[in-house]
Amino acid sequence: MTANLTTKPILVWFRQDLRLRDHPALTHAVQSGRPVIAFYVFDTDPQQRPMGAASQWWLNRSLGSLSNDLAALGASLVLRKGQAGEVVKALVQETGAEAVVWNRLYEPGATARDTQLKAALKDLGLEVTSFNGALLNEPWTVATGSGGPYKVFTPYWRAARAKVTATSALPAPAQILSPDNWPASDRLNDWGLHPTKPDWSKGFDDWQPGEAGAQARLDDFLAGPANAYAEGRDQPGKLGTSRLSPHLHFGELSPRQVWLAAQMASHQGDLDDSARDKFLAEIGWREFNHHLLFHFPHIATQNFKPGFDGFGWLTDETGLKAWQAGLTGYPMVDAGMRELWATGWMHNRVRMIVASFLIKHLLIHWREGEAWFWDTLLDADLANNAAGWQWTAGTGADASPYFRIFNPFSQGEKFDPKGAYIRRWIPELAGLPDKLIHRPWEASSLELRAAGINLGATYPKPIIDHSLARNRALEAYGRLKTLHTDEVP
Ligand SMILES: Cc1cc2nc3c(=O)[nH]c(=O)nc-3n(C[C@H](O)[C@H](O)[C@H](O)COP(=O)(O)OP(=O)(O)OC[C@H]3O[C@@H](n4cnc5c(N)ncnc54)[C@H](O)[C@@H]3O)c2cc1C
Hints:
20 helices; binds flavin-adenine dinucleotide; Rossmann fold; 3 domains
């Protein structure tokens, strides 16, 4: 369907909302009766953090999927590369658009840019409207009794949960009015988002980026593992969690859709209320992390608790490389790092174990781990990643206390007692009996030989002794405490 010649178009800027359903900005644009031009900008603004390599892989597929979904409605997705603010202004000029809409982001760089851009476009006489498409509650709508932001999850979620009013999600538009002329678009393939030379993404093929894949994941989860979520979510050897994180990060599904689907499943008697609540509380952590990042933007790069600023981090290139490659000699750590490299995702329990190992066993700054995750995770998300790392380090809001040092082998024995996870990701240890699989260094030479292992050759010996590392971390924290008794809890 094309537009009346006199009607000027409305631009819909897609960002982390790569879907057609429950997309308030798109719905608004369609309902405005104007021809709609949907576009995506691959941002090269040096003020914004560049997307990591794994995220670029996802983006490539997700944009392809969104383009196809729009094409089915007779519309196009215009692709442009450049400094986002400048690209939007250029598109307004080229198309003669009289309105621009988008769904809001909450990251410090994005909010600063969007605020400036909104003002500049309004000065040019355009109608500019933004919407909430990414959170159940926007960060400024949930406040403590004294009006400030929450810093502790439990009271935050109690207050935030009670405010969720979602009763239905917006449908995808039935049709989209096209402009007389489409502005030029880059070709997605020319952006080079898919890795070549080498193509390290072969293990990502189980993922189905895009709105249909996101919906299928949600349906499969609710029909399957959701009921056993409370226990299943801590067992990395099983498919116990939803694996919705990249879909949620790229906005192929809104948290409102997830909330409504979980409520519906429990209403129909298909999902136990306690499993539903546990699962929704994790969506709550996502909300909480966005709330924190919005109110305390420095936490993307700086300690939430400044008392940790003088901590004596070590520079240890060899340790960092061994950690990244999954060659620390601690099976649970290595399995996690290899799962991450191979699939672009890592189980939450294991994320905590590998993060604790880097920070506390190796005394390497959490920012190094955050940066590696940023590049290798398909769900890399500024708010969730920084909060996850700071939670583990003890430097964050409502963080795990600094003296909690995960023991990588007892964690493995507790959450992967049969070693299913280890055998999957470290096949060279598969022949060890369950009781030794998390601590191969305790196996006798006979047991090692029987399992085909030459410790130190086919699989590394631990790069650091656990007790020694634990004591060293506690001493380092102890020294900090005496320096800043009033700031380190
Ligand atoms: C060091 C560290 C780094 C992390 N980095 C990221 C990241 O970059 N991106 C990211 O999305 N998550 C991150 N997490 C949080 C968590 O590990 C993932 O969200 C989760 O493993 C995703 O798997 P899932 O979709 O199967 O989760 P489910 O258990 O099925 O949970 C459903 C959804 O809730 C949200 N969620 C679950 N757990 C958390 C959590 N602890 N914090 C915030 N949101 C949560 C996610 O959106 C997830 O998709 C990190 C955690 C740690 C400890």
